[in-house]
Amino acid sequence: MTALDAVAVYLPSTLVPIEELADRLELTDIQVKMFRRFHELREIRFAGPQTTTDLLLRAASALAELPGSADRVHYLLYGRAMPVTEPYPVNRIDEVRRALGLEHALAFTVTQQSCASGLLAIAQAGRLLEADAAAAPEPGREPLALVLTGEKAFTRHARLIPGTSVFGEASAACLVSANGPRNRVLSYACAQRGEFDLVGGGSAAKFQREYRPALAAVIRQAVEQAGIELDDLRLILPHNVNVVTWQRLCVLLRFPLSRVVLENVAAGGHLFCSDAFVNYQTAVHRGLLAPGDRYLVATVGSGEGATFAAMVFEH
Q1: pTM tops 0.90, yes or no
Q2: Percent of the chain scored above 90 by pLDDT?
């Protein structure tokens, strides 16, 4: 069963008040007030001159388990929201692979589901490792995958979802195994909705109307697939799009808002594919998860269509 053997995150120390971003994001005073008071997006985290390679290496270097297991890493997956982020021939994941001494690993980027690509990368890593496990490797030498997330908010388009959220910068690294003892994946549900391709003419109004019901449906599907009830979840680790979305979603789900980790929304913003892992670290540091607790990660990716995804774990 796919498991996260270790998780590490890197949070740049620079937090910029939403008011200071108004000119760069072309926000009116009313829009700034809406983000701060209504959506509770108060400060956005940025990494300054650090490159994407720097971000990813900071997170990977924080994995204490990686140096002793590097030779077992068969796959390096980069879950990224933006399909194109650098001019040719820059290849950030290859730079990271060389810097970490993982030239032997198969490396590739997952972008097909925008901000839901981080969960997709975990699921793909699990399938690859499951196939390798069929070869019955030597005990203690089972193959691993390293999943990385993190990217730069490098343009206005990459920094802003108008009226909804503001993106910040951070990174995460997960060491994934096929049969780990903790943070085991119990289920993964994903719904792709091509009709919400807003660039291709999809209705933004319809997307807004169906956003919460669609996410609620995929959350319920993941819970059902895990063989548990919604109330069995100790926590939900959300995507940090804004607070009001989760307030209303919890009403729809009849799930206590107090069991949704939302503190990183106000002090960080939406961190692309890294939200889930940043919120996981917060939950662990606050002692909110005990061995055996079930928790759910939920996220939405919006690009050429929309992806609603949820994954249930056992801590």
Answers
A1: yes
A2: 84
